[in-house]
Amino acid sequence: MALLQGRKGIIFGVANEKSIAWAIARAMNNEGAELAFTYAGDALEKRVRPLAESVGAKLILPCDVTKDDQIRAVFDQVRTGFGHLDILVHAIAFANKEDLKSDFVATSRDGYRLAQDVSAYSLTVLARHALPLMEGRHGSILTLSYLGAEKVIPRYNVMGVAKAALEASVRYLAADLGPKGIRVNAISAGPIRTLASAGISGFLEMLHHVEAKAPLRRGVTAEEVAGTALFLASDLSSGVTGEVIYVDAGYNIMGM
Ligand code: NAP
């Protein structure tokens, strides 16, 4: 039987066919999951809808995660359409471009707040709404992080601080939701070319550095991240929660 046969999931964070969330969605769909998708704005609907429809999705809903009314509407429609939920994928991050260019010390209050709200707090609010739909179903919640949460990566700045909050949120949520049988984990992915990564100054430098120094002497693909997402969403990882799992060709273990 396919790994996710009969499971129902929702994917937050598909922007286009290069999105890590899209690779995850395809892998989950190939393993039998029925999926709902969200998109962040009208402009994105044009790109997300055809992708979502290509994997048979019927629930394709608007959701800017800074808007509580939109989040509520998404979960109301998931309750009506699916009845319950087994998987939630959170692949969302945003920071102002100017905050990813200069020194971290220059981060504005508004820039800090925005990065935290979209990239970290959103996991907590989505988990809270998913909870009643996941209770008693061994639900799995996954998010995407990056090494900049723990180590200084030049110009990752406010996003690194948001990812640190995101990883801490994974642990607190795992502790809260574990007694209800719901697992919460993060994947810390190596650099991959996507719309979001294009906004980080010096991204190609980051990528080339990993290719030169990582134990596997290469970067990783979105499909490799999706493989670990599949593991975390399935019963293969039934004893794993509160973890940050690296899919980075081993780069994080290197000291020099
Ligand atoms: P992506 O395709 O650009 O996905 C980022 C998604 O976040 C987009 O769908 C974007 O929608 C969405 N988003 C931004 N603000 C939002 C909001 N207010 N409400 C709802 N959605 C919003 O890039 P990606 O690289 O696949 O990123 C997915 C996740 O992986 C992110 O958390 C990222 O930090 C993480 N990650 C990426 C890498 C990498 O190198 N690519 C490495 C490690 C971790 P819009 O396009 O409309 O803004």
Give an overview in words:
By secondary structure, the chain is an alpha/beta fold. It has one domain: NAD(P)-binding Rossmann-like Domain (Rossmann fold, 3-Layer(aba) Sandwich), CATH 3.40.50. The protein has eight helices and seven strands, in the order βαβαβαβαβαβαααβ. A seven-stranded parallel beta sheet has the order 3-2-1-4-5-6-7, sandwiched between helices. Helix 2 (42-54) links the parallel strand 2 and strand 3. The longest helix has 26 residues, at 109-134. The chain is globular and about 50 Å long. The termini are far apart. The mean pLDDT is 96. The protein binds NADP nicotinamide-adenine-dinucleotide phosphate. NADP nicotinamide-adenine-dinucleotide phosphate (NAP) binds at residues 13-15, 19-21, 40-41, 44, 63-66, 91-94, 118, 144-146, 189, 191-192, 194-197.
